[in-house]
Amino acid sequence: MTTFTPRVFSGMQPTGNLHLGNYLGAMLNWIKLQETQECIYCVVDMHAITLWQEPKELHKAILEVTAAYLACGLDPKRSIIFNQSQVQEHAELAWIFNCVARMGWLNRMTQFKEKAGKDKEQASVGLYVYPNLMAADILAYKATHVPVGEDQKQHLELARDIAGKFNLDFGDAIREAGYNGDFFPLPEPFIIGPATRVMSLRDGAKKMSKSDPSDLSRINLSDDADTIARKIRKAKTDTDGLPSEAAGLKGRPEAENLVGIHAALSGQSVEQVLAQFGGGQFSRLKEALAELSVAKLGPIGRETRRLKADPGHVEGILADGSARARAIAAPILREVRKIVGFVVS
Ligand code: AQP
User: Fold this and answer.
1) CA proximity to 290, closest of 28, 16, 20, 69
2) Phi, psi of 173 (to 5 degrees)
3) Distance (Å, rounded) from C-alpha 44 to C-alpha 48?
4) Reported pTM
5) Catalytic residue from among 60, 153, 210, 338
6) Ligand 1 centroid to 22 CA: how many Å?
7) What is the tens place of the pLDDT at every residue in 10-52?
8) Which one of 122, 202, 242, 282 is separated from 272 by 20 to 30 angstroms, measured CA to CA?
9) Which of 20, 22, 57 to mutate to test the pocket of ligand 1 (most atoms within 8 A of CB)?
């Protein structure tokens, strides 16, 4: 078994405003990891166009999501921050993985089924092979750890399957190229915290999502204090009060969601939140949660607006990050080309 140097990779789509789910499910871990690990954080604009994006809006969203990354606390000196389309190695490796992954594997992907909806025939081919591009994003850097929300677990498992099959299919060529073990690592998902799957504020059965048509379903990182407080006040709840024990949240997705959000934002456990609010009415928890959300997200929204006013600065960070990302991915892809058998001049 080859030992790989630890390296973190993750990304978010510029398909709209980042929301509390993106923040609690992924971003909080990204910020912590950059303290101790080599981290590469991408704005995955090529993933975004698997669904139609109006070009001017997409352009704006790439800069806005980058501004939000910075406002949340990602440090462009410490971490590599870039947009995917500026590093062509992602697309090249994705094509090779299109030829490694099996149709049967992709047919099992639940996100494709959800996003394609009833009319699969009309979905883009890109949406179908999205997980292969995601595997390429990670493996173009031989990344070993991928901090994501719970919804990405299945795609991560696929990335591991693709890495494993590549290592096996090209085993002889990999050894001939001088590697005495695997070429790609099997990337580990890093899904931790009390809010790995934040649910819609309007429907506890659906995850909070940028593409939900109801803005009331999510808290955007760009929302102002009044909007945040109003959305939390209007959040759907059931008719019982809050339980005192975590077991009492079972089968009550809306209650579980609000308690989980409070725990993640306050850095407490679910049990600690219930020790404070259990046995009481939802209104008391909602009031505290609104206050806490405004305190945590308000400064992020303000900083994002400030950075958005200087697009040149944000573009400069993406250009620098892209050059640094390419410097890692290019030699890896050169090796991949040789291993596959292409003629490399
Ligand atoms: N509701 C969520 N709870 C916890 N984590 C979440 N993530 C997304 N939604 C939640 C995590 O955020 C990261 C970036 O996600 P993405 O932008 O790649 O797209 P997504 O997962 O498809 O998120 P959205 O908001 O639902 O986008 P749209 O509506 O455009 O599809 C990932 O780590 C994800 O797990």
Assistant:
1) 20
2) -65, -35
3) 7
4) 0.95
5) 210
6) 5
7) 999 999 889 999 999 999 999 999 999 999 999 999 999 999 9
8) 202
9) 22
